[in-house]
Write a structure and sequence with these properties.
- This protein is of the alpha/beta class and 202 residues long.
- It has a single domain, classed as Rossmann fold, CATH 3.40.50.
- It contains eleven helices and eight strands.
- An eight-stranded mixed sheet has the order 3-4-2-5-1-6-7-8, sandwiched between helices.
- Strand 3 and strand 4 form a beta hairpin.
- It starts with a strand and ends with a strand.
- The relative contact order is 0.21.
Length: 202
């Protein structure tokens, strides 16, 4: 599997946390792409505590591509090493930068898919879809899409509004990730009816 994209439809149910946790448990070399267009890299400021070079990332990749195109070398020059065989392509620092990336997503999607040949998988943190300039091209091109949801009914029923069932509900590899146990206010039946896709409990 080459590219797995994580996204939410409402609120902040833990997309970045889920993506980063999975990256450190991944069975192959993996690149985490911060494609959340709300701005301010939560990995740089949170996980890395603001101690790492913040000059590299998606914006640098887009700028470099204007001269040299989207290349493997250009991609890796913009990445940071998180751990052994764990890498990060940081996101934007300011929401105002999101518009400049909107035309670049299809090319970035192709570039990421090609990493499989080099033995590297990609986990995309697409953030909350439905926002301006959300990276829908990355979600559509991903080998699997994971929809991360809160556990309350309004969270669960927010998905059909943003995800067309013809495109997502019947899409092979599309998975819902929701809460379970005493904190889960939405039942399995609620999720099944709302999403019409498989659901994983976490």
């Amino acid at each position: 599997m080459a590219v797995v994209a994580f996204a939410s439809a409402k609120g902040a149910p833990g997309v970045t946390t889920s993506t980063l946790a999975l990256a450190f448990a991944w069975h192959r070399p993996v690149l985490v792409v911060e494609a959340d267009m709300t701005g301010s890299s939560s990995v740089l400021s949170g996980f890395l505590r603001g101690t790492t070079d913040q000059s590299r990332g998606l914006v640098g990749l887009s700028v470099s591509a204007r001269q040299h195109g989207f290349t493997d070398q250009g991609l890796w020059e913009q990445c940071l090493r998180l751990a052994e065989e764990r890498y990060l392509l940081p996101g934007i620092a300011d929401p105002a930068q999101a518009a400049a990336l909107s035309s670049a997503w299809p090319s970035i999607a192709v570039l990421l898919a090609e990493l499989e040949a080099a033995g590297v998988d990609v986990l995309v943190d697409a953030g909350r879809v439905g926002t301006a300039y959300a990276p829908m091209s990355l979600l559509r091109a991903a080998d699997a899409a994971v929809l991360v949801s809160g556990t309350r009914l309004p969270d669960v029923w927010g998905y059909p509004v943003l995800f067309n069932q013809d495109e997502w509900g019947q899409r092979q590899g599309c998975q819902g990730l929701g809460g379970s146990g005493r904190s889960a206010f939405a039942s399995r039946r609620d999720c099944s009816r709302a999403w019409s896709i498989p659901r994983s409990e976490g």
